[in-house]
Amino acid sequence: MWEWFIGFLAQVLQVLADLVGDWGLAIILLTAIIRLALTPLTVSSTRSTARMQVLQPKMMEIQERYADDPQRMNEEMQKFYSENKFNPLGGCLPVVIQMPVFFALFTVLRDRIPEAAHFFGIFTSLAMSPSGAVAELGWLGAWAFILFDLAFGVLTLVPMLLNQATSEGAQAGQMKVMGAVMALMMVWFGWSVPIGVVLYYVTSSAWGVVQQVFITRKVLEKAKADEAERMQNEPVKVDVVRKERKPRPRKKD
User: CB neighbours of 152 closer than 8 A, spacing ≥ 6?
Assistant: First the structure.
């Protein structure tokens, strides 16, 4: 199945490269097609994220109430998810779906495209890594490879900073630190992978940032407002614990 997917991806890139006349542009076009196809799922994921933010205080309340009883906590959390029709993994689906393409590109760029495949002469070879470019072309000659590797890290950080702007207190600080660590990891990771993979990620991330600024934020704000209104209008549930009825003492004759 994996080999079939790699072959299919290679054929798609070949068709796109023949159509536009450049392998790098073919990767950008492939990224745009995937992102467009995932737009409905991304909107659904955004709504799921908004619901999670609104429901977070209630979930924390359940976790605190049953902190000494993990089994009961899990039962109450599952009940809470079911009552609110909430999937805690819903916000991860767009990223998960893109991962096979991301990893399959390694093999495609290494084994399935011409060695001379380039991106309008900016990259001499899409299979070459930034570290390989520096070794072969020198730091000055590999400037485009280095720039895209840095963009790899920056575009990992930007979405987290945008999300951090809507967070408060300690959570905002944690997201900022996590974003900085992730950005450094991506720069390190991108240093040794084919630049065609970096090109795919940079294009996808840039698309995501633009989408987040102009579309996702509006969807997120509306979804949060709708969920908050639903929670306010929902009837209050009271946990009633019935006391055990004890038999009355009988009078002795």
Answer: 186, 187, 189, 190, 198, 201, 202
pLDDT of residue 100: 87
Query: SS in 3 state form for the chain?
Result: CHHHHHHHHHHHHHHHHHHHCCHHHHHHHHHHHHHHHCHHHHHHHHHHHHHHHHHHHHHHHHHHHCCCCHHHHHHHHHHHHHHCCCCCCHHHHHHHHHHHHHHHHHHHHHHHCCCCCCECCCECCCCCCHHHHHHHHHHHHCHHHHHHHHHHHHHHHHHHHHHHCCCCHHHHHHHHHHHHHHHHHHHHHHCCCCHHHHHHHHHHHHHHHHHHHHHHHHHHHHHHHHHHHHHHHCCCCCCCCCCCCCCCCCCCC
The residues, any chain, with a CB within 8 Å of residue 204's CB and separated by 6 or more, are 31, 34, 35, 98
Q: Is the pLDDT of residue 52 over 80?
A: no
Q: How far apart, in whole angstroms, are the C-alpha atoms of residue 27 and residue 201? A: 10
- 131: number of Cβ within 10 Å: 16
Task: Say if residues 203 and 28 touch (Cβ distance below 8 Å).
Answer: yes
Among 34-48, 84-98, 198-212, where is mean pLDDT lowest? 84-98
Identify whether the C-beta of residue 16 lies closer than 8 Å to the C-beta of residue 30: yes
pTM for the whole structure: 0.75
Say which residue the tokens 């997201």 belong to: 175
